[in-house]
Amino acid sequence: MTQVTVGVSLKTYFGHEQARTWFAEVAQRAATHPAVTSGEVRLFVIPTYLQIPAALDTFSATPVVVGAQDVSEYEPGAYTGEVTAAELAELGVAVAEIGHAERRRLFGETDEVTARKAATALAHGITPVLCIGETSRTDAVDAATATVAQLAADLTGAPSGPVIVAYEPVWAIGAPEPAPVEHIATVTRALRAAVEADPARTGSVVIYGGSAGPGLLTRLGDDVDGLFLGRFAHDPSALDAVLDEAAALAAARGEVRA
Hints:
CATH topology of the largest domain: TIM Barrel
Helix content: 40-55%
Structural class: alpha/beta
Order of helices and strands: EHHEHEHEHHEHEHEHEH
Shape: globular
Oligomer: single chain
Number of helices: 10
Number of strands: 8
C-alpha cells in the first residue's frame, strides 16, 4: 500500500469555538495539499462528540475523514449517556478511536470491552482506530509479543473489515519524546505481519502514536503506514509538516512499486 495515513485526536483540549477555528484552518490546508487531495495521504480528524457536526460541515468539501473518540459497545436502546455506532454512522463518521490507554486506565475498559466496541463499529461500517500498546517500557521483542496478543484479544468476535492499528506504547504517551525508532519498528513490523496474515483484515494499516510529531515519520520510513498525532497537531503548521513528510513517504513507496 502506497497511501500513508495521518490521524489527529484532539482529546478534550479545545473548546467548541477553538475547535471550529482549528477545523477551518486545517480544512483550508488540506484542500490545497496535493498529496491529500490526490489520496496519497489519508487524513482523519477526531474531535469531541459535540464537535463532530461542525467538523463534518467544515471538512465536507475536503477529503478529510471525521472520526469519534469512542463508541458505545451497545446497539441503540436503553443505554443512557451512550453514543451508538449506528448514530455516528448516520451522521457520516467514518472512524472511531477505540481502546485508548486513557479509556483503559481512567474508566477501566478491558480488552473484552474494547473487542465489543470494535465489533459494533465494524458492524456499522465504521473503521476502528484500535489503540494498542504495552503499559511499561520493556524490550522491543517482548513489547511486540504483548501487542500482537492484545490486538488479537481486541478483535475477538469482530466481523471482517479493515482496522487502523494505532501502536501507542503507554509509557510514551505525553512524554517529551516518542519511543525510540528501533523499538517502534520492531513492534509495528510484528503488528503489520499479524494483520496481513488475517484475511478478515484486508486493507488494514499500522500507524504510530505516542508523542509523535514532525520529523518522526521520515525516520521511521517504511516501518509504519503513518502517524497518529495529539498535541503536536494543535499547531496547524506542525500538522502541515507531517503531511509533507507523509507525501514524501507515499511518493517513495510509489517509486519502489513502479
